[in-house]
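Database export, one record per block. Field names are fixed; values are copied verbatim from the stored entry.
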Amino acid sequence: MTMMNNQLDIAIVGYGKMGKAVEKLALNHQHNVIVTIDNEEEWETRGEKLAHCDAAIEFTTPEAAPENIIKCFERNVPVVTGSTGWGHLLPEIVQLCNQNGQTLFYASNFSIGVNLFFELNKRLACMLANMKAYKPRITETHHTEKLDAPSGTAISLANEIIATRDGIRKWADADNNPSEDVLPVKSYRKENITGTHVVSYDSDIDSIEIKHTAHTRRGFAEGAILAAQWIQNKKGVFTMKDFLNL
């Protein structure tokens, strides 16, 4: 391992578009990419190289992410994961991390702008919590290769709104005018869209809308690399709220 001048030895788990973006940016920042792993066969042939890494950055699928994280824990490697769609298993992974003295940094979105957007969403939800005339809804649009829907970011936005507004019990894939206890979250998949999220509140009189549009994957990759630097010498489970001190 090398830690001089914050230089890291990194493993990249998941070598799709995000993995390649992380690799390119990591090398530009003078980090070392020791190994890339993209499937079970490569875990078998390359997995031992993780023992020499300061962190593993994981962007895969909802099905693969939990097992990938466990494999990193078994090799005593801190994990930064941006995989989404497996949140129902997060409590189990958190417990495993804490019981075994490991390190996990989990984020549904590593973009600094998106995490500021989360805070705006929370603030707006609080301001409108008692204004029942304004009906909230969320839309998200991503590239056609994105496997989970709605996005982890959209789910995070929805959960913040649900936490502040009495009467909304859940979010669901629903068109406009669902039942009163449902927050509609619509997903769209289009070519060459990095990621757009819109939170809107509509009344008979007017509408209020906040929007975040990602232009490239660089923001996600940059955030993941910064997280990998930040977790060095830390134990436990962390999120972007910890990183940004929000």
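Remark 1: Helices lie at 17-28, 40-46, 65-74, 90-99, 112-127, 152-164, 218-230, 240-244.
Remark 2: The longest strand covers residues 135-142.
End of record.
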